[in-house]
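QA checklist item 7 of 12: single-chain prediction sanity check.
[x] sequence parsed
[x] length recorded as 251
[x] structure emitted
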Amino acid sequence: MMQRTDKKARYTVPDILRAVAVIAMVVYHTLWDMVYMFGADIPWYKTEAGFIFQQSICWSFILLSGFCFSFGKRKLCRSVTVLVCAAVITAVTAIAMPENIILHGVLSLLGTAMLVTIPSEKIFKKIPPLVGIIINAVLFALTYNVSDGVLGVGDMSVRLTDFLYANVVTAFFGFPHGGFRSSDYFPLLPWLFLFWCGYFICQLLKRKNLLRYLSSFSCRPLEFIGRHSLEIYMAHQPIIYAVLLVIYKIV
């Protein structure tokens, strides 16, 4: 590790944290391929611990994306790029493995969240960051189970009308119909609120003059991975599958 003093340098800590999430994602998807595509017996993977591992990776990506949104200079271009990548993944999985199609996945969410946040920033700038964090955290908790037809938490929850769960369009917003399938499903509700939590956390650090600490240390290999997380996301599954194919079918 070494100190980075250049004030104009890219913030290193978010890149490092993103790299850790990318590495964890590669591990998780390797296990997924082993279990569901090559029939490996990994009991832990299907336990609650495995689910928590998967959710921690997704939460990290979404929070970090929201946190880093303000740093981008070409926000519209970035959001469109991510949405195009999401469409490519949907098309490829629909053709190559329709039983495991990825529809409304995490890239679709992130691209849409960026797109929605661009015009919303003028309003967000007027909201105290701590208030923004609290509001979005509460909304995230309240809408966390809308995909299962429930709005609210515990005893303070209500069953939503079946009318909302109509088709693939309503599934995009968080209301999947009965026949909906996706191997990676992250609709706008509740995940947009988690993205905005990350956004307001960044604004809070900025207001407290704490952003300078995000360049307090460096790890070049992890920073490289973090800077190229989208490219790695797009390429990792074919590579993993090819390696496992060699191991399971050829070796």
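[x] summary fact logged: Confidence is low (pLDDT under 50) at residues 1-7.
[ ] second reviewer sign-off
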